[in-house]
Write a structure and sequence with these properties.
It is a single chain. The protein is mostly helical and about 90 residues long. The termini are far apart. The relative contact order is 0.16. The longest helix has 21 residues. Helix 2 runs antiparallel to helix 3 and helix 3 runs antiparallel to helix 5. The protein contains five helices and no strands. It is flat and about 40 Å long. The chain has a domain of about 45 residues.
Length: about 90
Amino acid sequence: MAGEAQRSSEWPLVLSLLVALTGLVVLTFYDWRNGVLIFAGSVILAGLLRATLSDTAAGLLHVRGRMFDTTFLIAVGAAVTALGLIVPN
């Protein structure tokens, strides 16, 4: 029972990683800018999930305090988004 509860609490991390993987595939095989923006969106998604879910439900997205995790993930996602939009082809 404990293993099942632990697996179910990892869906936020798995969802974020799937979106990040999608971004990496798009980055590698299609358009690099769209891939970077999708990847940045996955980091922002992780930050939003960390902000809304409890510590138990956040699973491995819970590293430090909620405020630190949320601020750090959203700031990194915003920085990668800005770089993806600013860097010329």
